[in-house]
Amino acid sequence: MDQQLNLLPSGFFSLSTNYEILAVNHTLLQLLEYEKEQLIGQTIHTILSKSTSKFFQLMFYPLMTSKQKVDEMYLELKSKKGHDIPILIYATSDKNKVITCVIVPITKRNEYEDQLLEAKKVAEERLIEVNKVNHQLKTALRNLEEKQEELLKVNSQISKYKMETQKELQLAKNIQETSLTEKIDNNHIQIESYYNASSELSGDIYGFYQINEHQYGVILLDVMGHGISSSLITMSLGTLFQRLISKGVPTDLLMKELDEHLHGLFYNNEEAWHYCTAIYLFIDTNKQTIEYVNAGHPPGLYHGSNDAQKELFASSPPIGSFEGMYYQTNTFNFVKGSRILLYTDGVSESHRRVSLNEMLKKHISIPIDDFKQHLLAAIQTDNNQEGPHDDQCFIIIDLK
Amino acid sequence: MNINLEVEIVEQDSTAIVLLAGEIDAYTAPKLKEALLPLAKQQGLLIEVNLEKVNYMDSTGLGVFISALKATKESGSELKLVQLQDRVKRLFEITALDSIITIDSTVRGGK
Q1: Domain A3-105, what fold?
Q2: Which parts of the sequence belong to the STAS domain (chain B) (predicted)?
């Protein structure tokens, strides 16, 4: 055999008309692990697997008989040691009926095909997963869009509710402020006030009334906390003290009535319980006397015309705190030209009491309106720095 | 003012020591009330509230102590406030509550 044919990278052999092996190259011998002498003269079935033998008879023989040619037929050879080797066979027969065959082992190809099939299977599984995740994402997106729509709807409702509440609160603020008394200015007395709620509604309330030609009642109260609950209590107390002061009820009795009213409001309702600090001044411009009761309220400041100051300290705890309390009345004489400052702790917190004393002393000679502006400017400075934490209210009384 | 209030209770025999630290205002007062009122409703208990580490208190905080004092009057217990900072003690003085509530005269320097 030609040397080149012997070393072909493909297997080569030839068969007689009886399908006996006539020649075989080295490559095929190596593949089948036979020696040349062991195959020459042997029938082709020696090197065919059992299943391929039948197929060979059924397919190969007829094709060679009819067409003298076989292209790319898949067969399995059997090695000497019994291993099946998949191959593709190409065969032709010449004029002498000798069949020339070339085989190409396809073990690697099968492996590649298996890998490709496996890869295809994995890709298909991944695709299914991707489609599944994609579906889940679409569902989630749809849910999210629905939730977003709901949120927008709720947000719109909240905005509407907030707007309506704000409107109601503003109206309530107007009503609360309407209940405050107007300033008094006559030949005997001048009273100015300032009122600022930390939120829409305040827990502070005041009132000043001319009882008769020479007598005046001035009251300032601060209900615990601030906001809606405190403001409701101020309105309840406001109605009562307006009636009592206008009647000229004695100071200690007035405070007692307010105390009992508060206890009555929260009878059997400990959760809603509130207390209230209060200071009440009964001023007689004819006798030039001031009677006062301070129930737990920051001390009122009295500045006489001779620069003497007096602090109207609390002598009893806040109203509504303990039942059966005695509210002591204190009395002192005032001189004309004196000034009194009453305030809630929202004012004294932003201005230490010493500071208010000093301000009162420093500005004693300026008109009441100007003094009010000085106080407001000082309070405003503090508010700008920290913002008001509590309701702020003060009353200035000039005794002429 | 929305700073936390720390409340620690140490009970021994018939005494309960309540250690407070922080600020007592509208936000933290409910926490104090929740801790203090059940003690105040117990019979024959001495409740000593240590306010050394309380540097701010508003009217809501005072309200809790008034409620607690009222409860002790009914249960036969005793409420005592100790080691108040100047600023907090002044609040009890201004409101005349120092004449009703037992306050330890020892005052530590505060803000």
Answers
A1: Beta-Lactamase (3.30.450)
A2: 5-111
